[in-house]
Amino acid sequence: xxxxxxxxxxxxxxxxxxxxxxxxxxxxxxxxxxxxxxxxxxxxxxxxxxxxxxxxxxxxxxxxxxxxxxxxxxxxxxxxxxxxxxxxxxxxxxxxxxxxxxxxxxxxxxxxxxxxxxxxxxxxxxxxxxxxxxxxxxxxxxxxxxxxxxxxxxxxxxxxxxxxxxxxxxxxxxxxxxxxxxxxxxxxxxxxxxxxxxxxxxxxxxxxxxxxxxxxxxxxxxxxxxxxxxxxxxxxxxxxxxxxxxxxxxxxxxxxxxxxxxxxxxxxxxxxxxxxxxxxxxxxxxxxxxxxxxxxxxxxxxxxxxxxxxxxxxxxxxxxxxxxxxxxxxxxxxxxxxxxxxxxxxxxxxxxxxxxxxxxxxxxxxxxxxxxxxxxxxxxxxxxxxxxxxxxxxxxxxxxxxxxxxxxxxxxxxxxxxxxxxxxxxxxxxxxxxxxxxxxxx
Length: 442
Ligand code: SF4
Ligand code: SF4
Description:
Layout: H1 14-20, H2 24-27, H3 40-45, H4 52-63, H5 71-78, H6 85-89, H7 97-109, H8 121-130, H9 134-149, H10 152-159, H11 167-175, E1 189-190, E2 198-203, H12 207-211, H13 213-225, E3 228-231, H14 241-244, H15 249-262, E4 270-273, H16 276-283, H17 285-288, H18 294-303, E5 304-306, H19 307-314, E6 326-329, H20 333-336, H21 343-350, E7 356-358, H22 373-376, H23 378-395, E8 399-401, H24 405-417, E9 423-425, H25 427-436
Parallel strand pairs: 2-3, 2-4, 4-5, 6-7, 6-8, 8-9
Antiparallel strand pairs: 1-3
Helix pairs in contact: 13-25, 19-21, 21-25, 23-24
C-alpha cells in the first residue's frame, strides 16, 4: 500500500488486502498488453476487463480507492481462472497470482449486497466440509456410486431431473467420472525395487484419491520401479487449495501446517505430487505460511516435486513394454504456468515404446477446470472445455494425457458429451502400463 492510500473502500477490506499484497506488485505491470493473447477469458470474451492487464488495473483502482469493488468489478475478477498463463507471458515478471488470490478471498470475506460472485452456502459446505476430507467425500458419493453401478445415474441424468439442482451442483454431478472406483489404500511404506536410489514421500490428495485412486497406486509402483522407497504418511491431509481458492484462508493454513507435521521432509529426498493443483499449492506454502512458520515451509517446499519433474531429475528407467497409442498432451495450468513443468511429462511419454505423441494446439490454454472454477463459473468453464475439445479432436489422438485430476475430470466430461472414444488419463498411468506391458513383437 502507498502511504496515502485510503484504508477502506466500498466492497472489500483494504487493510486485510494490504497485509497480503505488496503494492509494488501492481506497479510492476507496465500495461504492455503482451499477456492478453494468452489469457483464456480474454480469448473468449474479447473484453479488456477480462484480461490480465485489465484486471490488474481494476484491482489497483479499488486498492487506490478510485473505484468500488462493484458487482461489475467482481464479475471480471471472479471470471479469472487463476491459471497464471499471464505470468508465463509477461516479460516484466508480474506476479499476477499474488494479487488475484488475496483479492478473490477478500471478495468472499466481504460479499456484495447483491450476492454477486458469492459462493452459496451449499457449495461452500461441500467445498469446505466434504471435498478436502476423502472419507467424507467417499461417504457422500456412496449413493452416486451405487446408482452408477446399476446404470441408474445415467438414466436420471438423461431424464433432466438434475436440472432442478442449483447450477453448481448440476456441474458437480456432470463432472463425476463414469465409474467411481473403490478405495486403494496404500501402505505407509513401500520398498524400492532394485538398488535404492531415493526415499520419497507420496502425497495422495483428497478428491483425486477418491476419483482416481488407481493413479496414486500407479505413481507408487512407478516410483518403486525407479528405485524409490515410498513413504505414504497416514496423517497427510488436503493441500488446502480447495479452501484457499474459495475464500477460506485460515483452514488452508491449518491444513498446510498439518502437512508440515505429517511429512518427515528433512529425511526425504523429495515430496512427490501427481496433481498439478496440489503441487502448486505445496510450492506456495512459503507464501501461505510466511507469518507462521516460514523456515519449515521453505524446507518443505524445497522438497516438493511433480512426479514427472522428479523422475526426469532422477533419471527415469525406460519401460520396455509397448503401448501402440496416439496420445496428445494437455498442459495443466498449475503444472506449466505455476510450476514451469512442461518438457518432463512429454519426456516420460516419449520414452514409451510404440506411443506416438501428437502436438496439441493451444495446449497451454486452460481447459476450464481451474480448481473449483467449473463449479463456480460453469458457463465460462464450458466454453473453454469445448474449445479444448475441438483442438483435441483435430489431433486424431485416442488418448489425452494430462497431469491434474481437475483437468482429467473436465476433459473426460466434454469427451463423454461428444460421445467420442477418447480416453483421458494421467501420464503416469501410461508409464505404469508400459512397465507391465509386453514388448512389441519384432
Ligand atoms: S490467471 Fe489466467 S484467466 Fe486470470 S488473467 Fe491470468 S491468464 Fe487470464
Ligand atoms: S501483466 Fe505483464 S504482460 Fe501483462 S500488461 Fe502487465 S506488464 Fe504487460
